[in-house]
Amino acid sequence: MQKSASASSLGPGGIDLSQIFFKPTQNTSTPSPTNGHTKISVIGTGNVGMAIAQTILTQDLADELALVDAKPDKLRGEMLDLQHAAAFLPRTRILASTDYSATVGSDLCIVTAGARQIPGESRLNLLQRNVEMFQGIIPPLSRCSPDTILMIVSNPVDVLTYVAWKLSGFPSNRVIGSGTNLDSSRFRFLIADHLDVNAQDVQGVFKVEEVHNKWQELSKEAYIVGEHGDSSVALWSSISVGGVPVLSFLKKQQIPYEKEALEKIHKAVVESADEVISLKGYTSWAIGYSAANLARSILRDQRKIHPVSVLANGFYGIGDGDVFLSLPALLGRGGVLGVTNVHLTDEEAERLRDSARTISEVQSQLGL
Ligand SMILES: NC(=O)C1=CN([C@@H]2O[C@H](COP(=O)(O)OP(=O)(O)OC[C@H]3O[C@@H](n4cnc5c(N)ncnc54)[C@H](O)[C@@H]3O)[C@@H](O)[C@H]2O)C=CC1
Ligand SMILES: CC(=O)C(=O)O
């Protein structure tokens, strides 16, 4: 049965905006307001944690930033190095400890601790090591900030987001994986590079189900969805450049359309991390911006749609088992506020379900 529309949910033309989004399937809870004081904790101060921390500082996203790592000297060194930039940055209190008490009262906890891949290694290969690490991280972190939103970045990010959800006991709207927000940026960069346009003009025009069998058009960013990994899915059918659907754009520019060329771009997205890792040993800057971009939408209640890892069962025909993977999700102060019901082609939907099955199979070995 459809929910009746309240006056506040009616958009221009009397469209019931609340109907555009699916609600998360689990019970939800909204964190208390920040009372004007925003605290972010970053767990793991390696390459990724520090790229995220410095982006948070330069973008003025927190009043207080707590850093936690298992290595006390490295941790103190990183804290001091950031504190010494105080004269050049908006005022933020920075603290660091190996003890989770430093994270008490966080609005957002970003977890980056964990083993990372060596060149050629799959993200899924890291699973066992990082699950064990999460057993020591997530319970104290959630106890110190029972109302926080957890953002998982450590790999394999989709399975570890599921693990964090299980270990925290939080409602699913407050457990988010950074997912394919990063892959989608790589995707937009590669398409823009291919067409010699600005990455910000690479958009996605989606058909969104407003009510049963009534569709509205929603212009957003071009998305990769599914696993942050080899089985990710590029939503080619919706991609537009400067308002022109990409396939017609290619024809207009007399660039011969070959499905293979598009597949190559998606393959390049999937292989991006490995390329950077084999060149510099790790990836850091892009994930730093990606995580800060998500932190802004959440803490400033921007209600923006991002492709992030969320509890996905029930959406797009994804089966019964609990699985986290990236879908276009509406993010705000309550975490995941909804998942957009965008129109996928049959092939895209099938690939998304395959991606869910890949993650499910890995997860089933965990016994959580
Ligand atoms: N989701 C994504 O898009 C991305 C995910 N990653 C993942 O992020 C993770 C971190 O990568 P890097 O920062 O490059 O690795 P890193 O080795 O530079 O840093 C890991 C940090 O975790 C700390 N750590 C280890 N055990 C800990 C524990 N029990 N408690 C607290 N801290 C602990 C280490 O001391 C180290 O400082 C990896 O799993 C990597 O695959 C990396 C890039 C992008
Ligand atoms: C390492 C990783 O997951 C990435 O850069 O995409």
From TrEMBL:
Superkingdom assignment: Eukaryota
Pfam family, one: Ldh_1_N
Enzyme Commission number, as recorded: 1.1.1.27
Pathway: Fermentation; pyruvate fermentation to lactate; (S)-lactate from pyruvate: step 1/1
Keyword flag Transmembrane: no
SUPFAM superfamilies attached to this UniProt entry: LDH C-terminal domain-like, NAD(P)-binding Rossmann-fold domains
Chain residues that bind NAD(+): G44, T45, G46, N47, V48, G49, D69, N130, V153, S154, N155
Residue intervals of the Lactate/malate dehydrogenase C-terminal domain: 180-359
Active-site residues from the entry: H228
Keyword NAD listed: yes
Domain Lactate/malate dehydrogenase N-terminal: 38-177
A cellular component annotation (GO) from this entry: cytoplasm
Any one GO molecular-function label of the UniProt entry: L-lactate dehydrogenase (NAD+) activity
Catalysed conversion reaction: (S)-lactate + NAD(+) = pyruvate + NADH + H(+)
Xref: InterPro entries: L-lactate/malate_DH (IPR001557), L-lactate_DH (IPR011304), L-lactate_DH_AS (IPR018177), Lactate/malate_DH_C (IPR022383), Lactate/malate_DH_N (IPR001236), Lactate_DH/Glyco_Ohase_4_C (IPR015955), NAD(P)-bd_dom_sf (IPR036291)
GO aspect biological process, one term: lactate metabolic process
Assigned keywords, A-Z: NAD, Oxidoreductase
Protein family (similarity comment): Belongs to the LDH/MDH superfamily. LDH family.
Name of the featured protein: L-lactate dehydrogenase
Source organism: Salix dunnii
Upper taxonomic lineage: Eukaryota, Viridiplantae, Streptophyta, Embryophyta, Tracheophyta
